[in-house]
Amino acid sequence: MTFFSGQKLTAADLNNLLNKNSPLPLGIIARGNRTTSSTTTTTEQGVLRLDDIPVYAGRTYKIWTTPLQLDTTVANDVVRANIRYTEDGSTPGTSSTVLQWCQSRADDATNPNTVEITQDYSPAADALLSLILTVARTSGTGNVSILAAATSPICLVVEDLGLDSTDTGTDL
Questions:
Q1: Cβ count near 46 (within 10 Å)
Q2: What is the pTM of this model?
Q3: CB–CB of 64/157 below 8 Å?
């Protein structure tokens, strides 16, 4: 959409800039914030969930977390954080498809390792995206969790980056 000097913008013009057909990034469209640590576990369990986020074909989204403090009660455990998702409006769980993950070996039980997850996402069709951040121990014998506090929350964020340019890269 082109605007000219002296042209008065109408509400309809502005609404067209702020909808799914807009070439502009719309910014953060969903955000979850948890200020308490997750329950300790030895198996995969949910930590934070975002439900029913409208996403549109032809747009690119960035799904990311703040730094996650992966903690364990026993040195040398491997702790994994997953972002799992559904695209049909259903509630995601620990058996839903993994969008992205990260893991870390905890060298000791007193200093958690910090990791982040970032993933671009371009839906093939309009969808209702739901996400769940999970934590799991993938090896070792301790109990694992993601630590949080008011000053270091666990955040899961969906950001609209604008129109999808499609894959223009060359695989080498």
A1: 18
A2: 0.88
A3: yes
